[in-house]
Specification:
By secondary structure, the chain is an alpha+beta fold. Helix content is about 35%, strand content about 20%. It is globular, with a radius of gyration of 25 Å.
């Protein structure tokens, strides 16, 4: 650690008019048009997920004005997955937090991002781990949060470190947004063609399909009745099992590799694999059994409403038995299998069919029996020429983000400890010792 750096307790770096607080203790049942709040599960890898917030009664939230967010605060998880930190974007002004999330209104002259970096440094993480109460589940007290020592190098050096690590974080965030856009585009085309049958409906109603002539000509201009539901003329209803094998491979005691690169349910969310945990063979969880290949689709069967699913684009991964693995019978259908299995309508169907009190789940066969509309090969191949490149770009973006995150996580402890010194933006003045 750089000996000339100043260290200040976190409580002295916050807005004195607000202080460090935790959020709503008893949020009550969800309210459809209530005030959204951020929970521990919404904070992961330095960012806040806003896809499925819990909404609480405005009357309950009114009693917690102290933690009502304005934008710019630092959030820190206190229970369960302790130590996850994220800066609140301005767009979340008016939201609040749950009891298990601390709101830290860092002074503007210090900056929430700097404190976030400090909280991720090994020295501070070690202190946090030593202060945890683990009687029931890991819990960190606000008193201990307030006393955490935050390194304050000279302003110029602090700005340089913030610039270096912030640039990497900004690029990772940009890639994430681009990936979301690419996937949304692929899903929109899938839903239009294979769920809502928009081109066929347009033709039956005498409207333009707004497709290029070569695509327009592929779609029929009428529907046919079937035992399930109406379907475009010349199409037929099928199931995912017509296109994909179910759970095709699993490790045995004899074949398990020395290192298991494990993907659990909590680490695959809305199409992205957020974290891969490497275990020695003898330490891997018993659920680490599903052998995954590139082009596989995984769908969580435990609490399917949590939307734990992903398209596999990396070799050497092992999935939890809480996933169903769908392997395309023909590689060219990989994107179609993924988009069909994880369409919003199908995930909602699985969530509705899940049973069990503590951990509602569905059998793998239920996923494989998901109904799909089987179009003529010319339409499917045209769709794949659109969706394939989109998902390929998405996978490339995700791989780049993983490389950038590794670079960031390697640099962070060296920069935050003073092992690597900087005086001006992007200029190191001492080598790693």
């Amino acid at each position: 650690m750089a000996t000339e750096w100043e260290f200040v307790k976190l409580e002295h770096l916050v807005d004195p008019d607000r202080g460090i607080s935790y959020g709503i203790v008893q949020p009550g049942g969800p309210v459809g048009d209530g005030v959204p709040i951020i929970r521990v599960s919404d904070i992961r890898d330095g960012r806040i997920s806003t896809s499925e917030p819990l909404r609480v009664s405005p009357a309950i939230e009114a009693g917690y004005a102290r933690t009502r967010l304005r934008g710019g605060e630092l959030l820190l998880t206190l229970v369960g997955t302790v130590g996850e930190a994220a800066v609140v974007p301005e767009s979340l002004a008016g939201w609040n937090t749950a009891r298990a999330v601390a709101v830290i209104p860092v002074r503007k002259d210090i900056g929430s991002y700097w404190v976030k970096l400090a909280l991720r440094s090994p020295s501070v993480r070690q202190i946090v781990d030593s202060r945890l109460n683990t009687t029931v589940q890991a819990t960190l007290n606000l008193r201990d949060v307030a006393e955490l020592p935050i390194a304050l190098p000279p302003q110029g050096e602090r700005d340089a470190i913030t610039h270096i690590l912030g640039t990497l974080d900004e690029k990772i965030e940009l890639n994430r947004r681009m990936s979301e856009t690419l996937e949304a585009m692929a899903r929109a085309v899938f839903k239009s063609w294979f769920v809502d049958f928009d081109p066929v409906r347009a033709k039956t109603e005498g409207r333009s399909t707004r497709l290029p002539p070569y695509l327009d000509a592929l779609f029929p201009d009428s529907f046919e009745e079937s035992e399930l539901a109406e379907i475009p003329a010349g199409w037929e209803w099928g199931m995912l099992s017509d296109l994909a094998w179910l759970n095709p491979e699993a490790w045995s005691t004899e074949t398990r590799p020395p290192v298991i690169n494990y993907v659990d349910l909590s680490n695959a969310k809305l199409g992205r694999i957020e974290t891969i945990t490497a275990y020695a063979q003898e330490d891997a969880p018993s659920r680490a059994q599903r052998l995954l290949r590139v082009h596989d689709t995984i769908v969580g069967t435990v609490r399917p409403g949590n939307r734990s699913y992903a398209f596999i684009s990396d070799e050497g991964l092992t999935g939890s038995t809480g996933f169903v693995v769908l392997r395309p019978q023909q590689t060219k259908y990989a994107e179609l299998v993924y988009l069909a299995a994880t369409a919003t309508e199908n995930i909602e169907r699985l969530a509705h069919l899940a049973d069990g009190a503590a951990y509602p789940a569905v059998r793998p066969e239920v996923v494989a029996s998901t109904r799909i509309a089987k179009a003529p090969s010319e339409i499917i191949e045209s769709f794949l020429r659109i969706a394939g490149p989109l998902l390929a770009k998405l996978a490339a973006s995700d791989r780049e983000s993983k490389t950038l995150a590794l670079m960031r996580d390697t640099l962070l402890p060296k920069l935050m400890s003073g092992e690597v010194r900087v005086q001006a933006r992007d200029r190191c003045v001492a080598e790693c010792r």
